[in-house]
């Protein structure tokens, strides 16, 4: 089992120094799992203890747990190819060059300003996103954005004729028996996130685009417990050929950018472990979530926090994240 001593010490520091209210985390080594819950669920309006089983707003972990897994099922089945044009599935998008690979690897260079974006109704927001343009760095660099996975969600909707979040539930959450993961949590079961002018967000998605698009958002919106995310992590690391094949999950730890030179996979980001060619799949969520999975060593790390409580202006957590990744990877064998 990973000793995890230095990783755990860093997590304890996050809580003791009030960088986050609390943390739920898991260290995974093959079949061995160490889970721990420390700290508080909330600081405002009054301190509240953190309990095992509470749900976190996973933010962008939705992209890899849900949307990427669901779309890669269709790739395995031969229904689609990652090199298909987005326009084939979403005719409202005008640029034929943009492929699903570009969207999944964040190399589509889609950008532009949408006035009053966070105040638009869902139909107008989607229409505005689909009118954005492709910039000059198309397929030359990666630029992380929610837009790509929102559009991948539209592809899933075009094929399944159901909202993307329904697809994720049916194709991923239920088969993996992520029993409490949901897009519609009870506030009492969830840790709170930000204190906004409209009150404290609790059981409501923090991401403004996801709040508008609701069940049609593939980039954020999933709430889950530590047990749920650990279940996903153990499946991803395993040799089980269900939900996705081991071959596909191995592929997700390799550079899949158009020229294989930008260090991103399909949906997943990549980080070098012991050597530059030993790449590990990882992803983060804006609310304070981290998932690092190494299919080579069968080791993984899950960290769930609500670092945006009571305010998202918490740079200390963001600044410490790279050191936390490296600490965990240095402790793996």
Detailed description of the structure:
With 333 residues, the protein is α+β, with helices and mostly antiparallel strands. The chain has a single domain (5-331), classed as 3-Layer(aba) Sandwich (Beta-lactamase). 33% of the residues lie in helices and 17% in strands. It has 11 helices and 13 strands. The strands form 4 sheets. A 7-stranded antiparallel sheet has the order 3-2-1-13-12-11-10, with helices on both faces. Helix 2 (61-76) crosses helix 7. This is Serine hydrolase. Pfam families: Beta-lactamase (PF00144). GO terms for molecular function: hydrolase activity.
How is the secondary structure organized here?
Layout: H1 5-16, E1 22-29, E2 32-42, E3 48-49, E4 56-57, H2 61-76, H3 86-89, H4 100-104, E5 110-111, H5 122-129, E6 133-134, H6 147-160, H7 164-173, E7 195-196, E8 199-200, H8 208-213, E9 223-224, H9 226-237, H10 246-251, E10 269-272, E11 279-285, E12 289-294, E13 299-304, H11 315-331
Antiparallel strand pairs: 1-2, 1-13, 2-3, 4-9, 5-6, 7-8, 10-11, 11-12, 12-13
Helix pairs in contact: 1-11, 2-6, 2-7
Protein name: Serine hydrolase
Keywords: Hydrolase
GO molecular function, one term: hydrolase activity
In oligomeric terms, what are we looking at? single chain
Order of helices and strands: HEEEEHHHEHEHHEEHEHHEEEEH
Describe the strand arrangement of the main beta sheet, using strand numbers.
Answer: 3-2-1-13-12-11-10
The average pLDDT score comes to 97
Give the low-pLDDT segments: none
End-to-end Cα distance, whole Å, is 9 Å
Integer tally of domains: 1
Based on the coordinates given, report the CATH architecture. 3-Layer(aba) Sandwich
Number of strands: 13
**Describe the biggest sheet?**
7 strands, antiparallel
Q: What is the name of the CATH superfamily?
A: DD-peptidase/beta-lactamase superfamily
CATH hierarchy class name: Alpha Beta
**Helix percentage range:** 25-40%
Strand content: 15-25%
Counting helices, strands and paired strands, the structural category is alpha+beta
Shape: globular
Rg over CA atoms, rounded to whole Å, is 19 Å
Number of helices: 11
CATH topology: Beta-lactamase
